[in-house]
Amino acid sequence: MTEDSQRNFRSVYYEKVGFRGVEEKKSLEILLKDDRLGILPPHHESHAQVMMYRRGQYSDVLHALKVIRFVSDATPQVEVYLRMYQLESGKLPRSPSFPLEPEDEVFLAIAKAMEEMVEDSVDCYWITRCFMNQLNSKYRDSLPQLPKAFEQYLNMEDSRLLSHLKMCSAVPKLPYDLWFKRCFAGCLPESSLQRQGLG
């Protein structure tokens, strides 16, 4: 059996069981690259069902936090998101009065920025949650290289500014940690983080 006939057999089989386009290696690569934050599955037909499950999970976690009196109706929404994230990731402190960890401050800043851009609280939580998971799993190791990359980019775009900052000894005092760990959330106005429409 040639590879083409095997591919055609697999294609027909996979289509019968509901997997479309599996034989196309490029399509799979595109799908993997296109899964931006893992928010929604690639097939549009399942989006509504996935969102129904996510709304249910959101309600269940919120209810659990209210039962254990970690949040109430008066709790700011971004703090509710933080407590939900902590509960789901097994990092909920013993008491809501415990001081926040630095990563909690990062979560709150990113959740606040998302809240400005996303109206629905369930969507906002899921986007923030997935964003944080991506940040912590895929990009954490690259954070230490960002100050150097920033300086290289600034040198290409405005070398006079970089020279001035170096001359004033300001470069080492720039709040790189704050900027890059928070992805500029809480550092810049939310309007500058939103994609602006043309026209």
Structural class: mainly alpha
Based on the structure given, which CATH architecture is correct? Answer: Orthogonal Bundle
CATH class (first level) name: Mainly Alpha
Shape: globular
Poorly predicted runs of 5 or more residues: 21-25
Helix content: 55-70%
User: Element order, helices and strands?
Assistant: HHHHHHHHHH
CATH topology-level fold name:
Helicase, Ruva Protein, domain 3
Strand percentage: under 5%
What's the story with the biggest beta sheet?
none
Whole-angstrom Rg: 22 Å
The CATH superfamily bears the name Ypt/Rab-GAP domain of gyp1p, domain 2
N-C termini distance = 56 Å
Domain count: the total is 1
Number of helices: 10
DSSP strand tally: 0
What's the pLDDT, averaged over the residues? 82
Subcellular location: Cytoplasmic vesicle; Endomembrane system
Main location: cytoplasm
Keywords: Cytoplasm, Cytoplasmic vesicle, GTPase activation, Membrane
Protein name: TBC1 domain family member 7
Could you give the topology of this structure?
Blueprint: H1 3-16, H2 25-34, H3 47-67, H4 77-88, H5 102-117, H6 121-139, H7 146-157, H8 159-167, H9 176-181, H10 190-193
Helix pairs in contact: 3-4, 4-5, 5-6, 7-8
Write a structural description.
With 199 residues, the chain is mostly helical. The chain has one domain (24-197): Helicase, Ruva Protein, domain 3 (Orthogonal Bundle). The chain contains ten helices and no strands. It has helices spanning 3-16, 25-34, 47-67, 77-88, 102-117, 121-139, 146-157, 159-167, 176-181, 190-193. Helix 4 crosses helix 5 (102-117). The chain is globular. The protein starts with a helix and ends in a 6-residue tail after the last helix. The relative contact order is 0.07. Residues 21-25 have low confidence and may be disordered.
